[in-house]
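> call design_seq(struct)
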């Protein structure tokens, strides 16, 4: 398991609206591109490695799997909110996202307070 890389990927994506949009449009392709960007002219390096389970969880935008795999809960919530932001407006949808997140995480741990 590479928890550090899981957290690093989530933080990398959520810090840029452009990266969030690219990831949301095609998560699997974005993950593979991100992993490949670590390499130089001679190929990939070891600084960006995800297990098959981590890759699959990111490709599926599977919050529950990411939590179980050890994603930091604070980063996971902000990543989830960022990549799903296009699905809601300030008037609707955000509360549903919070409840979906809670439902995914609650069987495996304590859900931090989200107003």
């Amino acid at each position: 398991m590479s928890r550090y890389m899981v957290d690093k990927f989530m933080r990398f994506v959520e810090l840029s609206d452009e990266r969030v949009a690219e990831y949301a449009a095609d998560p699997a392709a974005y993950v593979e591109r991100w992993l490949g960007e670590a390499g130089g002219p001679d190929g990939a390096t070891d600084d960006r490695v995800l297990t098959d389970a981590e890759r699959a969880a990111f490709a599926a935008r599977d919050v529950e799997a990411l939590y179980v795999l050890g994603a930091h809960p604070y980063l996971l919530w902000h990543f989830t909110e960022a990549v799903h932001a296009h699905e809601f407006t300030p008037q609707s949808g955000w509360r549903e996202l919070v409840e979906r997140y809670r439902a995914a995480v609650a069987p495996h741990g304590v859900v931090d307070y989200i107003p």
